Amino acid sequence: MxxxxxxxxxxxxxxxxxxxxxxFDIKKGEIFGFLGPNGAGKxxxxxxxxxxxxxxxxxxxxxxxxIKNAKEIREKIGVVPQELSLxxxxxxSQNLYLYGSLYNVPRNVIKEKSDELLDAMGxxxxxxxxxxxxxxxxxxxxxxxxALLHKPDVLFMDEPTTGMDPQARRMIWDFIKRINAEGxxxxxxxxxMEEADYLCNRIAIIDEGKIQAIDTPRxxxxxxxxxxxxxxxxxxxxxxxxxxxxxDGVTKALYDKGMLKLYIDDRDKLLLDIATKLSNRxxxxxxxxxxxxxxxxxxxxxxxxRD
Length: 307
Hints:
This protein is an alpha/beta fold. It folds into two domains: about 1-215, 3-Layer(aba) Sandwich (Rossmann fold), CATH 3.40.50.300; about 225-290, Alpha-Beta Plaits (2-Layer Sandwich). Helix content is about 35%, strand content about 30%. It contains eleven helices and 14 strands. A six-stranded mixed beta sheet has the order 6-7-8-3-9-10, with helices on both faces. A four-stranded antiparallel beta sheet has the order 2-1-4-5, covered by helices on one side. Helix 6 (about 165-180) links the parallel strand 7 (about 155-160) and strand 8 (about 185-190). Helix 3 (about 90-100) packs across helix 4. The two termini are about 35 Å apart. The relative contact order is 0.14. The model has no long low-confidence stretch (mean pLDDT about 90).
């Protein structure tokens, strides 16, 4: 059963087409990742599906409801936005009571559900503290709890772990896995490839407003098996990228933290040509590596996720 259905969805801002006839479905109980570089159309898509932005054309249904029916959909979904939706001058408990009342959640249910979620997020002992005294990671965890208080059918999470330390991020990951195991459908945008790889059943990659690929993380990486990847430890200079990309068969070159990464058509045929091109530069090491989800993303979009 599909809980989200998108068919030819378009959003235009004047002459700019931010989302260009995208189509995809999300199955009930799925964690669906939505990845793309900045400006690709991710947030615009999320805002249309959560009824914060009107579509230009196309169709979309969430929980079987057309997105034109905003009031009905908002009762069925939870949204974890990038911007915190908290009142710093209230306690965590007060924030939850305020939010729950907006959805007409009974006070006894708010109390029971709040304590359950606060405990799962490690915030129960701090529920009576003012939110202004919370760390950034604690505020983000409380932000997630708010979105679940009215027991939605679908949870939209827009980069929920950005800026968190690894321990706090892992707590969110475990929590997402837990609520998904209980039946929650999750639509996740993220800047962390390892997060998408670990959490998502399927991933859609969007670039320049168009869906470029949709599949499981495993299958996406398998599709890149025909392309070899070399990592070369070498000092950077201003002509390095230009020189290696001039070798026929090198499709992309990236340099980061002392490592040159090359995406090439055939390692055995090109290794000598690449070594020759770099012969006047000291190479510390060279190795062939298995493709990661980030490699898939770069191969499809030509960009890193944070570009």
